[in-house]
Amino acid sequence: MSPLYIQNHDTGRLVLRYDLDTGRFAEIPADMRPEGTKLARGFYVAADGKFTGVHASSQGPVLFCNELCFCLQKPGYRIEVSEAAGANEFRLLQNVQCLVQVRYSAPEPTGNPFWPEDEKEFSDFFLWLKSGMSQAQFFRYYTQPE
Fold this sequence. Notes:
single chain, 146 residues, mainly beta, 7-stranded mixed sheet, 3 helices
């Protein structure tokens, strides 16, 4: 299978080359993506020394954190985001077990005029992901035919 090229949530200048077969990944400048390759449906961020993101698959949205992958369509997954001054924390849980934990700094507001009421969710990948987990539209969008 060809690697996925996933766009960075915070900047269009970077992409993550992600090999689904091996779990190997590398962040590269967007202009270094091989000609003719398409961006995968998804986003990622770099935080806490980890690359965490979501991409579409035939089984539904897949959350990855470095080489770990979790199909969010399966029952029992829950996302928690705790916000504190200077240090937020993202957790992916399955039932009561914490599978992924990422500490990160809250991003600066972008001032986007298109989503002024959703400013935090627009600029914070982890809040956006948490919100998406409760929306059927998110699961439809991140489920692609084979």
